[in-house]
Amino acid sequence: MAVKEIMLDNVTKDATQEEKLAAKFVNCVMKDGKKNAARKVVKNALLIAEEKIGEPALDILKKAIDNIRPAVEVKSRRIGGSTYQVPTDIKPSRQTALAFRWLINFSRNRSEKGYANKLASEVLDAYNQRGGAMKKKEDTHKMAEANKAFAHFRW
């Protein structure tokens, strides 16, 4: 299979939604301002995922992020001396940020060799609706469902 170039660098305003998502993901992976290193890691991870699945890399990333993007979360509200976990809807930008954060954190905690392999494995797990990030989403939704009785405390 011929390896095609994944557009992660100069994302312009006419870039596709997936390319913007990938560029934002690179910025989230970046540590200590080392963008080139982050770009290489994400590119290698997406190429590994592309080889294993056979779909375009950016489509794999988009579907993985969509799978682990939470719809609701719980926020603590202090009312009359008691603290309640109130379920609230999440804005799309925060959904994406949480998905990125979970994906990155759970990939860093994997036991494989090399960060690109860890990230590729977590992206593939998210694509297939399993893994740590997916479990975190399910736990968040369960917590919101369990505290549905306090939804009337929402502002």
From TrEMBL:
The Gene Ontology terms for molecular function here are: rRNA binding; structural constituent of ribosome; tRNA binding
Supply the alphabetized keyword list. Answer: Ribonucleoprotein, Ribosomal protein, RNA-binding, rRNA-binding, tRNA-binding
Q: What is this protein called?
A: Small ribosomal subunit protein uS7
* UniProt xrefs under Pfam families: Ribosomal_S7
Listed CDD domains: uS7_Bacteria
Which gene name does the record give? rpsG
> Per the similarity annotation, which family is this?
Belongs to the universal ribosomal protein uS7 family.
What does the UniProt record say this protein does? One of the primary rRNA binding proteins, it binds directly to 16S rRNA where it nucleates assembly of the head domain of the 30S subunit. Is located at the subunit interface close to the decoding center, probably blocks exit of the E-site tRNA.
Highest classification ranks of the organism: Bacteria, Pseudomonadati, Thermodesulfobacteriota, Desulfobacteria, Desulfobacterales
Q: Which NCBIfam families match?
A: rpsG_bact
GO CC list? small ribosomal subunit
This protein's species is Desulfobacula phenolica
| HAMAP family tied to this protein | Ribosomal_uS7_B
